[in-house]
Amino acid sequence: MKNIVILISGRGSNMEALIRARDAGELPVNIAAVISNRPDAEGLATAQAAGIATWVMNHKAFPDRESFDAALAECIDDFAPDLVVLAGFMRILTEEFVRHYEGRLLNIHPSLLPSFPGLHTHQQALDEGVRLHGCTVHFVTPALDHGPVILQAAVPVLDGDDEATLAARVLAQEHRIYPQAVRWFAEGRLRLEGGKIRLDAPLDGTGALISPVLR
Ligand code: GRF
């Protein structure tokens, strides 16, 4: 069974979705550890309650990004993960860190990339007046919120939406697609080859799921 390490910074609801999928027998992975860069991340308690080893690597204790990332990589590698899963990990990573985990580092971003990288994605979508918004699971490359797209889910933007209602609609889809993508990796059906996704999975080839809200 593949070993994964999950990195969080806060609430940890995507991490929880992964734990739930594992507990339901839908995600054949060993969650070796959950690491947070923030000592007060709510998700730490959730992971502990699930019996998962937790670790805090406080970035504030390091003089610069390079030294933090090097220490973080050392901590991660102690658990010998096949895959590192960023689940609301709010840190910009150095190129060296990203290269070290090339092909085994996943992120989820709350927009349909390449639209709306960075922060406040739901407000960006509302400000642009787009009709479809969503979330993306991708392999991480050195450019922020960039990298080969594995899976996306789209939701409609409804009249009267505000940041909170739109975020909640997207989050429900995040909790669907992240366990799915991690499962494909765990089953050996997903890999990065020459910078492109190789996916042997029952999709129609589009790499997209459309939210049931649209049906
Ligand atoms: C999610 O919307 C995720 O896509 C983004 O940050 C949020 C984290 O939420 N990167 P949670 O900590 O998983 O609840």
Question: How would you characterize this protein structure?
Answer:
- By secondary structure, the protein is of the alpha/beta class.
- Helix 2 (43-49) links the parallel strand 2 (29-36) and strand 3.
- It contains six helices and ten strands.
- The radius of gyration is 17 Å and the shape is globular.
- An eight-stranded mixed β-sheet has the order 3-2-1-4-5-6-7-10, with helices on one face. A two-stranded antiparallel ribbon has the order 8-9.
- It has one domain (2-199): Formyl transferase, N-terminal domain (Rossmann fold).
- It has helices spanning 13-23, 43-49, 65-77, 95-100, 121-128, 163-186; strands at residues 2-8, 29-36, 54-56, 83-86, 105-109, 132-139, 149-156, 190-193, 196-199, 208-210.
- It starts with a strand and ends in a 5-residue tail after the last strand.
- Bound molecules: 5-O-phosphono-beta-D-ribofuranosylamine.
- 5-O-phosphono-beta-D-ribofuranosylamine (GRF) is lined by residues 8, 10-14, 87-88, 108-110, 171, 174.
Helices and strands, with pairings:
Blueprint: E1 2-8, H1 13-23, E2 29-36, H2 43-49, E3 54-56, H3 65-77, E4 83-86, H4 95-100, E5 105-109, H5 121-128, E6 132-139, E7 149-156, H6 163-186, E8 190-193, E9 196-199, E10 208-210
Parallel strand pairs: 1-2, 1-4, 2-3, 4-5, 7-10
Antiparallel strand pairs: 5-6, 6-7, 8-9
Helix pairs in contact: 1-6
List its salient traits.
215 residues, globular, 32% helix, alpha/beta, Rossmann fold, two-stranded antiparallel sheet, binds 5-O-phosphono-beta-D-ribofuranosylamine
